[in-house]
Amino acid sequence: MPMAFPQTRMRRLRASAGLRGLVRETDLRAGQFVLPLFVAEALNVTGGREPIATMPGVERLSLTAAVAEAQEAAALGIPALMLFGLPAEKDEQGSGAWEEDGVVQMAVRAIKQAVPELLVITDVCLCEYTTHGHCGVLRDDAGAPHGQDVDNDASLELLARTAVSHARAGADIVAPSDMMDGRVRAIREELDGKGLSRTPILAYSAKFASAFYGPFRDAADSAPAFGDRRGYQMDPANGREAVREALLDVQEGADMVMVKPALAYGDLIRAVKRATRLPVAAYNVSGEYAMVKAAAAAGYLDERATVLEILTSLRRAGAEVLITYHAKDAARWLAEQS
Q: What is the CATH number of domain 27-337?
């Protein structure tokens, strides 16, 4: 046991920047960041960008603009992007998700051609592609509140088909976010059966039905047309269940696991890390980003200090990978400190 005051003075090692840096327990580097991008097929006509009102500083991008963002990210030392697609047309099954010339598939090819060393992670889900906005296909269910429910097992084939199309386009990692039971196994088997066994899966393992997703649904045009996603996304009150979800994904073949959202879930980042011993990603989601931006714009918070503190806390909790809309700014700030 350490000696008591006055022999022990904890402030001794806090007296200067050099001392604080020498004993710092948690590192934060641009090399740990993943930058999410929203690629909109409709913008390819103009080749431009479209601001997202609820996420200041974030835009929907054409293919040309997405390539420019990728090049900027790489120059800042950010090693990876996560792509979300907004198709020009939607249907009941979300067939645009697995089309060879779908918006994400085209973006993957364009980015990998322009910046081959940059890792491209693709979100595997149907919500942006379906007319109803749910993460899988629907079936009639008289017992469901709206007379329809998401058909878990019928959705697995479509999700696996989507993951294969992304991998064939050149995606380095596929990341299923739908929260259907068994989707990691279905994707792993389909990838392996198509000669794509080297493609890793980053599973959205503990994805909660969170109020923090609001701005994302504006950005990706993916709000459900009816009901909500609490029937397949997790209850925020359940921590042990989050660990169980992650362990099931590991058994099904996940190479990495994710906790989403991040800021209010540090306890679960730690618990999932301890249980799985796999690389863990924390998704610093749209609502968390928007809160900081709004408070900083109002003069209530120092944006730079707040963002770096949040990201450091996620690393301290156990996340190796930080998916964040702050990635470019944070990379610049860290470069200025070095």
A: 3.20.20.70
Q: Please give the helix or strand (H or E) that residue 271 lies within, else none.
A: helix 266-276
Taking phi over 0 as left and psi of -120 to 50 as alpha, with beta for the rest, 299 belongs to left
* Length of the chain, in residues: 338
30-43 pLDDT per residue, tens: 999 999 999 999 99
Q: Which residues of 89-128 are buried (b: 16+ CB within 10 A; e: fewer)?
A: ebeebbbbbbeeebbbbbbbbbbbeebeebbbbbbbbbbb
Q: How many CB atoms lie within 10 A of CB 325?
A: 27
Contact 254, 226 (CB under 8 A): no
pTM: 0.95
DSSP-derived 3-state class of residue 234: strand
Find tokens 């909500």 and name the residue: 228
The residues carrying an active-site annotation are 207, 260
- Domain ranges in the chain are 27-337
How close are the terminal C-alpha atoms of the chain, in Å? 36
> Over the chain (338 residues), what is each successive 10-residue block's mean pLDDT?
84 95 96 98 90 96 97 98 96 94 98 98 95 87 74 96 98 97 98 98 97 90 84 95 98 98 98 98 98 98 98 98 98 94
Q: Whole-angstrom Cα distance, residue 329 to residue 23?
A: 25
Q: What pLDDT, in 10s, does the model give residues 268-300? A: 999 999 999 999 999 999 999 999 999 999 999
